[in-house]
Amino acid sequence: MDWLSFTIYPVYLMIFMCIYGCLAIGLNIQWGYAGLFNAGLAGFFAVGAYTSAILTTSEAAGRLGGFDLPFPFGLAGAMIVSGLIAWPVGKICLRFRSDYLAIVTIGVAEAIRLVAKTEDWLTNSARGITGVPRPLGDLPYAQAQLAYLAIVGLILIVVYLLIERQAHAPWGRMMRAIRDNERAAVAMGKNVPVRRLEAFMLGSALMGLAGGLYVHLARTITPDAIDPMLVTFLVWIMVILGGSGNNRGVLLGAVIVWIIWSASEIVTDQLPAEFALKAKYGRMFLIGLLLQIVLRFRPEGLLPEKLRRAPLSEGALSPTGHGARIQAPHKEI
Amino acid sequence: MSALLKMKSIRAGYGEADILYDVSMEVAEGEIVAIVGPNGAGKSTAMKSIFGLLNIRSGTITVGGRDITGWSPNRIVNAGVCYVPQVQNIFGEMTVHENFEMGAFLRKGDFSASLDRVYALFPDLKAKRKTIAGSLSGGQRQMVAMGRALMLDPKVLLLDEPTAGLSPKYMEQIFKICRDVRAAGVAILLVEQHAKQALAFSDRGYVLAAGRNRHEGSGPALLADRHIAEMFLGG
Amino acid sequence: MDIFSFVNFFLLPGVVQGSIYALGAIGITLIYAIMRYGHFAHGDLATFGAFTALFVAGLLGLSPYAALPVAVVVAALLAIAIDWLFYAHLRRMPKIITTIASFGVALMLRSVVQIIWGVDTTSYTRGISRPENWFGIRVKPHELVTLLVVIGLVIALHLFLTRNKWGKAMRAMSDNPDLALLSGIDNNKVIAMTWVIAGGLCAASGFFLGLNTELRSLMGWNILLPTFAAAILGGVGRIEGAIVGGLVVGVTEELSVLVIPSEYKMLSSFAILLVVLLLRPTGLFRGKIL
């Protein structure tokens, strides 16, 4: 047994960490920068996965395909299609407070799942798409995994650097200004709806990218491959635990949450079979509880956004802006 | 004459910023007292500070000698001070009668005597008791707002700009109602934009500017002071 | 299609399903009205209520109908406990934070159901119930019970909100929270009452969903979208709107199979939601926009 085989599990973990890191940055743009509540990010992830799969696979009977495009085109397609789906959603919902966006994005994710399940010609429905190619996938297994980690890691670094540059450019400052005080931003002549829509589409495109990266790892995709609630929720807890508004924070969150999630799986896999299945739900319960604990004791996250002056006061922990009522000074309401 | 409601050297503000620096005033039984002054003087803020709606940094507020500084609105209402905010002062989706019932929320037992008294003060509203309050005219809404506050039989009624946006006819009517309320044994502290008219019918007045007391005295005396008239009452 | 098949195959099932949505939507709209946030754990609380009824019925050997009141009480208490544990301390924060917390609570509730009762489909009763024929209109007994109980609950709620002092206080808090506080209405009691009502109705909606279809750990999550669509269609904060909205969504879902493939039936509520947000975000009864 050569040394590479010992790296298989950690490498596998780290590839997922990078994919989740990409999702977390995408959500951070929406929630951390723009205060938008996307509760259906699994849908955008799935769109990315399917798009890249369709674009890069060879011809298969009965479904759209046979484009045989190289990997980068698959990823680009994933980003474009996810971003474009975000456009009408944002158009309709961004006028309102984020509760509406949340419920509509849940609907979008559901619609996408149903399309994947139903439309034979597009997604091959329940049988899914197989034989998705992977760059350097012809290498021996351990090397191929390592090579893919390098690719995914590199993409994540590029995404991080580009988004960080954007965040410190006037665009990022404007986003935060809109989030923290929408009225003032409007008064200064900022085009709030357009800026918000940009953030929503950009974030969704990154979620699509993550989906593309996932499908070339898994090399196959079926409608039930993604547990929408679980994926969505894990990314949310990564962003909130890490520190929404801070890309380094959300990446830290991705690392921590993914390690907790995977390590707990290793533990519960040791249990007898009848408990092992239930233990999965126990882990999900604990992830839900972790969110409550973070919201209670460290709502600004582990690495808070630096620009925020008063992390615990009204309006500081991201969000609402959107037509939020000025709070009465009574504390209880 | 003993002070019913007394504010002593109040310093207060929202969040970090102070708006009132040093405000003192008092209302005795059976008095109508007006707070006037330029925009941004802190008139409404002074009134809200009585109700614990902003952070009081120093000073005390007493009602009948009892210190109520920092109490919750709910306890202050029970202590006999009722407050009519300038805006959003009625339950617009509920009937006139239900507004009054909500005014009497803290009362235990029968409150029909208070209800009769309120309808006696506002006879117009008796016919509209089943009407949704939000559909009434501006003047009638102000009456609903005052009626709601009177349902607890307060000792002092605080009115924040009761005549804002009303026609002169309604303004006169509100002032007349204030006198009727006083006649029923309730003292009134009101903030007014229409300084001259308010001082003319008030027993006493306070002129506030930049978060501090500037002048005080009887209504007619303040009106007669040329300096005050020029500086604060619009000539 | 003659009138009888329209009523038997579309209208009646739609009304039954719609009244189930209405029960959930009333809770959603009340929580919005009093606390001003969207409560995303509503569906999973309904699942919990449905399984509680199953458990109680099995434990005591009761008919599921007798277990319903127990489930309602348990869910009402659970709702208060959830508020106390997870939402109460967030009241000073932007409202959307509580919505996020409720998303987490949804996951927790679902996990609890899955741990205790597993993920397999089950039902309250075995066998097929025969519909009664009333002059050509065929109603199954459990459908009749669903409609009667829902009507009863709605009347009781209406009387509470218009006749009872605390019911009026709830409306006052929804109408003008600042003035309600100035009138001495105890915010915490109103919030607790809101949770009792919303939680209880939630359990009832889960129970009737289970009675008319089947019990699954995802049953509540799957009605979250139609329930929200019903609340928003009716007008946020409007009880009567939630009822009408629920019925419209339920009937539309049933009728949708005439025009779209049945696989996409679940999306008709989503389409309604989008149309309402586009054309009339205050809903049919001029509700609040948050």
Please outline the major beta sheet of chain C: 2 strands, antiparallel
CATH architecture of chain B: 3-Layer(aba) Sandwich
Mean pLDDT of chain C: 93
End-to-end distance of chain C: 42 Å
Tell me the structural class of chain B: alpha/beta
> Count of helices of chain C?
11
C-alpha geometry of chain B: globular
**Backbone CA Rg of chain B:** 17 Å
Q: What would the average pLDDT of chain B be, to the nearest integer? A: 88
Helix amount of chain B, in percent? 25-40%
- Low-confidence region ranges of chain C: none
Order of secondary-structure elements of chain C: HHHHEEHHHHHHH
Keywords (chain B): Amino-acid transport, ATP-binding, Nucleotide-binding, Transport
Domain ABC transporter (chain B): 5-235
Protein name (chain B): ATP-binding cassette domain-containing protein
Family (chain B): Belongs to the ABC transporter superfamily.
Key terms:
heterotrimer, A: mainly alpha, 12 helices, disordered C terminus, B: 235 residues, alpha/beta, Rossmann fold, 10 helices, globular
Task: Summarize this structure briefly.
The complex is a heterotrimer of chains A (333), B (235) and C (290). Chain A has helices at 4-33, 41-56, 71-93, 98-118, 120-123, 141-168, 170-180, 182-187, 192-218, 228-242, 247-269, 273-297.
Mind explaining what this structure looks like?
The complex is a heterotrimer of chains A (333), B (235) and C (290). Chain A is mainly α. Chain A has a domain at 7-227. Chain A is built from 12 helices and no strands. Chain A has helices at residues 4-33, 41-56, 71-93, 98-118, 120-123, 141-168, 170-180, 182-187, 192-218, 228-242, 247-269, 273-297. In chain A, helix 1 (4-33) packs across helix 10 (228-242), helix 2 (41-56) runs antiparallel to helix 3 (71-93) and helix 11 (247-269) packs antiparallel against helix 12. Residues 308-333 of chain A have low confidence and may be disordered. Helix content of chain B is 36%, strand content 29%. Chain B has one domain (3-232): P-loop containing nucleotide triphosphate hydrolases (Rossmann fold), CATH 3.40.50. In chain B, helix 3 packs parallel to helix 6 (138-150). Chain B is of the alpha/beta class. In chain B, the strands form 2 sheets. A 6-stranded mixed sheet of chain B has the order 6-7-8-3-9-10, with helices on both faces. Chain B has a 4-stranded antiparallel sheet with strand order 2-1-4-5, covered by helices on one side. Chain B is globular and about 50 Å long. The two termini of chain B are 33 Å apart. With 290 residues, chain C is mostly helical. Chain C contains 11 helices and 2 strands. Chain C has helices at 3-35, 42-60, 64-87, 95-117, 141-163, 165-175, 177-182, 187-212, 219-234, 239-256, 268-279, and strands at 132-134, 137-139. Chain C is globular, with a radius of gyration of 19 Å. The model of chain C has no long low-confidence stretch (mean pLDDT 93). The A-B interface holds A 328-330 and B 14, 53-54, 73. Chain A: Keywords: Cell membrane, Membrane, Transmembrane, Transmembrane helix.
